[in-house]
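User: Run a structure prediction on this.
Assistant: Running it now.
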Amino acid sequence: MKTKLLLTLALSVLFLTTVRAAEALDEKAFQKHMKAVGKANKDFKGNFESKNAAAVEKDGAAVAESYKAMAGFFKARKNDDAVKWSDDSATAAAATATAAKAGDWDKVKSEWSAVGKNCKACHDKYREKLDDGSYKIK
């Protein structure tokens, strides 16, 4: 009887530890995607001004994939606002890539602006700046 209880307890602890580790990995992956989007956003202005279609297309496609992953992160947390903003940003980033490939720079600018508006909305609602200058999700 004690053996069954100890085994059950040990398996429960192992399960909870595994779940916590998976959450940490998800958070780490989420931060990696956020940093990639931030870098692409910083690079966008120069690439847009120089009409570097290949770079804008590549970054737009990568950002779209990052937002698809982030939508999954927020779905798991049942955060419908952030899921919508992530989905909308993925669509707009993919449209940015397509427009860059076609040389439609007006559309590139408008689609990338849509990505930025979604970023701002989500950051304003769910991002908290910490005392050390870093950020966390509220």
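The chain has a mean pLDDT of 86.
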